Amino acid sequence: MLPSFKLHMHHAILDRLAKVGKYDGKHPSLTCATSSGKVFLHNPHEKNDDEADQAVRFLNINREVSAIAVGKFRDQDAGDTLIVGTHANILGYNVEKNSDTFYKDVPDGVNTMLFGSLPNIPSKMVMVGGNCSIQGFDREGNEMFWTVTGDNVTALTLCDVTGGGKDELVVGSDDFEIRAFQAEDVVCECSETSRILDLTTIQKQLFGYALDNGTVGVYKNNHRVWRVKSKNVPTSITSFDINGDGELEIVIGWNNGKLEARSIANGAAVYRDHFSSPIAAVLAADYRLRGTSEIICCATDGEIRGYAYDGADGRKETATILMDDITAEEKEVQALIKSKAHLMNQLKAFENASAKTTKGSSVRVATSTKISIVPSTTISHSNVELTVSTDNDSIIKMLVIFDYDAGIFDGESLVIRPATPGSKIQVALPPLKKSIAVTLYFRVGNRGNGNMFHVFEETFALPKFAMYVPLKSLSGERPTGCVKFKKPLRMPQFGAWIKSAFLPSDETTFNELDTTSGNVDFIVKHVVDNSIVAITTTTTDMEIRVNDMTVAAELIQDLCHHLQIDELESIADFPAQFAAFRDLLVRVDDYNSIRLKLTGDMADDSNQIKHLVIRAEDARIINDMKGMRSFYSELFTLNNQLLGEYTKRATNHQALLDALKDVNSMIQLAARLRNGQAKAAVIVACRKAIKANNIHALFYIVKTGREESR
Questions:
Q1: Residue limits of the Ciliary BBSome complex subunit 2 N-terminal domain (predicted)?
Q2: Are 210 and 282 in contact, with CB atoms under 8 Å apart?
Q3: CA-CA distance, 612 to 551, in Å (whole number)?
Q4: How deeply is 68 buried, as exposed, middle or buried, from its count of CB atoms within 10 A (0-12, 13-18, 19+)?
Q5: Do 180 and 159 form a contact (C-beta atoms < 8 A)?
Q6: How far, rounded to the nearest angstrom, does the alpha carbon of residue 13 sit from its chain's CA centroid?
Q7: For the segment 523-544, what is each residue's pLDDT rounded down to a tens digit?
């Protein structure tokens, strides 16, 4: 398949900042953000000669563009509205009328944008991902939706992840998490190994993702279907049937200029092409008005190529196609042939091994050999250790551990080759922050210098709170922070959760945990920072004492997930963090006051500059050189002053963004201390209190999870 068209804009295109919109309602225009705070629009249907530049027009935003979105707010709108986002505001623009439709300050920042609607808000809106927050604005710039997430939002898409017939808002963020939101509630969460760069909807329950570490893959619901990893970085992804087989493929642009399409079923490569510059964006649209969509690939140097499957031409160019269009029966036959070849290779390897051995049974590893893996956590070693051993005299020559999800190893793997091989190896793992499942490969042989080895494969899972060591008793004071709630479970269920979330230690085992009575006092200690967590139950209530609000939230969410608790309300009290939160809110007010003052001062200086420019020009016209030099000297001084004020404003703005991010993080933590409707209610109530600038109400909501009754 050859490109259906090629263009060159001769202007740089920023990563993932390209969209196609029909601003007059009929003709598609390619809209791209370029350097120097500009956006250019290319409409091939307005071109009157052979020069592509004749169809290009520019919009001067005069600020660095961080996101763009295109769409209709209402079905009856004549054409699409262009939304341009900068780091502190968004601008709605009517391209045909050359006029602004709205302008909105967004203190939380603008990292990515998406046009669409949510089930609970049927009207179309532009959704803005910022610093730990997601906001939705209507056609007049009014806020229609607001929620918080774990970190800076980097990617947004809409997909029916749960299969319930309604789209969820799928959000990727800097904390390596992909979350699906129904209104303010997180219904699906997937952990990855790097920062999420892009997301794309494929079809019901299927969506694709791209990571900063070179990984591209597909999820169905919260289960990963497949993934591939490259040394290069994916810059943009979309879904499209590129080979006309009736099945969508995931199309990927890379920073080395490679464009490729992969099957959504197994990740097999279907098509590949190369550009001379990195790919900036990959889009799907009917750009040439042929009645069918095509792939539009934009490179960072301004080169544009289109790709469309020509169903009338049954030929495919073998230089670019990596897989033939074959029937289902032929695919099955090919799979069987591959399986046969694999088995034949294995058989040949066994035959060669048998031929080399003179006394087979004496040098081979016993077929009954078993590998045992025992995890342990000790305060003295400050880490989690895996003790790997064989059940006979066989020795472990080499151990390779793969971790594909948690990212605890550099390069996703750890290779251990002991200087003196033995039947037992102890492996110290890096600090864990979540549950992990590792795959271990053992190279096992007999003692001596034999060259016959057997490779064992084992999968082993570690619980989420493996870094905590259970204690028999607590000698010091209990943590001051706590969260209380009605006990939502029976004691046998509580015991089952404890065993699934923690590891036993040398000091205590779970067999000593008495869950027959309603009163349990379970105490654990973190092996690195020595922080204490005390979980206490009575016949009716449950209390978690810990000084870190984040740990309390993680414990509650894990408890609700493991025991399928749909609704949970709680009362929280974390004195140290609440005091820091109060200071944070005071700083936010101070930053806002400084921002307004600096903005006013810069406006006054700008007016004075205009006045001095006019007076200097008047002096030049009347040949008053002395006056002109005086005015230009004042102008030079004032310009330097403006530059200094701008530096102050930029510093203050960054401090404000950081503070707002911390505010949003606290709101999310408060929500995660609850579950179900109570969790969503906290987010809505906190937003209402922030808009009303009611600090007292905000603290009441964070503590109790409810709005204060009047």
A1: 20-116
A2: no
A3: 59
A4: buried
A5: yes
A6: 23
A7: 999 988 889 999 998 888 899 9
User: Edge-to-edge strand order for the sheet containing 215-220?
Assistant: 196-203, 206-211, 215-220, 223-229
Q: What is the pTM of this model?
A: 0.81
CA distance 284 to 240: 7
pLDDT band at 110 (very low <50, low <70, confident <90, very high): very high
**Residue found by looking up tokens 């040439």 in the block:** 288
H helix or E strand, kind and range, residue 678? helix 677-691
Which CATH number describes the domain made up of 5-310? 2.130.10.10
Give one DSSP letter per residue of 502-549, joined into a string: ----SS--GGG---SSS-EEEEEEETTT--EEEEEE-SSEEEEE-S-H
Helical packing angle, 625-672 and 695-704, nearest 10°? 30
Distance CA(274)–CA(299), nearest Å, equals: 10
Distance CA 641, CA 472 (A): 65
H or E stretch covering 338: helix 328-356
Query: Which residue type sits at 26?
Result: K
DSSP assignments along 605-670, one per residue: HHHHHHHHHHHHHHHHHTT-HHHHHHHHHHHHHHHHHHHHHHHHHHHHHHHHHHHHHHHHHHHHHH
Amino acid at 210: A
Query: pLDDT by residue (tens digit) across 194-235?
Result: 899 999 999 888 999 999 999 999 999 889 999 999 999 999
CATH architecture assigned to 368-461: Sandwich (2.60)
**Left, alpha or beta for 667 (phi > 0: left; psi -120 to 50: alpha)?**
alpha
Q: What is the pLDDT of residues 558-585, one digit of tens each?
A: 999 888 888 999 999 999 999 999 999 8
What SS3 class is residue 219? strand
Helices (H) and strands (E) in the chain, counts: 8, 40
Contact 44, 34 (CB under 8 A): no
- Cα–Cα distance measured from residue 299 to residue 281, given in angstroms and rounded to the nearest whole number: 7
Is the pLDDT confidence value at 550 over 90?
yes
Band (pLDDT 50/70/90 cuts) for residue 450 is low
141-199 confidence digits (pLDDT tens): 999 999 999 889 999 999 999 988 889 999 999 999 999 998 888 888 898 888 999 99
Q: Which of 47, 64, 68 is nearest to 113 (CA)?
A: 68
Tell me the one-letter amino acid at 382.
S
